[in-house]
């Protein structure tokens, strides 16, 4: 390439790429291809581990309230095999511990699952690397994970944020970018819609197995915190499937009972300096329902002197300015938004819309049926709402936006990607979003979060958007 050509490419790039210190109201104009298909079944990302009955689809999630337990799950296809997990602290292989789990199976139309094992490892030490093994004989497979630091208001911790992942080439790109992120995130907050098996004929549950093998390379080594999305419902009365959430609850257990929840669809965990509340957009949440009562009690239990960062995860966004799933989160917003403002929630994360959007700190809680004052207003006690349903699934990107962009929408762009929430201490956290089309370190949108309890100043001017 000639020097002249390089110079003109550089000049064009400078014109196309603008870095903006912004205070709301930007739409990235980057247009990507709108459609994807699931990776073929013989793709190498779905490779089955060799050996008879070898454990596959290994995944872990936090197993208690405080981060001292881990649920290890895996699938054996030929026979039940062992329910045991052997595990030890790094450097102490001679003091191997053994935990006994259990296994379940389920049928879905004409599909019969493998043997799905779950095993709780308890009384783990904080901030410690553990190795663990599943399987027997020649098919033992070894993995490892780090436990979080002891709960402390200034404990730094780095979460990855992903949603609506699916299993296309774009999904693989998202996971690859996540794994390569130089911030080295330690756990994933996954905003729902995992496998998209239900987009295949008869909800082909083989696609739950392939998704489990595809994601193992990350989720076997760090916990993913699960949210229930609409693609987890798997309700199909026409083929006799009348029990909602069947594949999801058999495969992805969560520690809901530890937080006093009666169902695995809403629960909470604490991790490092964060109190994380998971809600279900697809379970009843009206007054008197179990989820309503649980959330009311849960918010009253949050201790910001122990866990300063209050983060809520749900699937259907409350503030969404795309022409997809428009206002699907509205009834839940009406029900709970005033609570979030009263309790000064820092951040609400959602998926569902296959795009990216970050809001200003706004609330819309003045409205009642007679006063007519229904309008989002700037509110320093309100959370920032982030939609990150841009994992890259088979349904493609949400590239149709409402116009004009509403004032409450700080930045939006229909590109695939992931984000990072990097807690520094009790007052500051750095948030950054990464699009798949950039290199691994490019922060396409970022913002310093000031904690709403310890440092409730205006943080809206800290955002930087790097858009095409
Ligand atoms: Fe969804």
UniProtKB/TrEMBL annotation:
Its cofactor is Zn(2+); Fe cation. Keywords: Glycoprotein, Hydrolase, Iron, Metal-binding, Signal, Zinc. Residues 382-439 form the Purple acid phosphatase C-terminal domain. Residues 1-24 form the signal peptide. It comes from the Eukaryota. Its EC number is 3.1.3.2. It catalyses: a phosphate monoester + H2O = an alcohol + phosphate. InterPro entries: Calcineurin-like_PHP, Metallo-depent_PP-like, MPP_PAP, PAPs-like, PAPs_C, PAPs_N, Purple_acid_Pase-like_N. Residues 55-147 form the Purple acid phosphatase N-terminal domain. This is Purple acid phosphatase. It comes from Lupinus angustifolius.
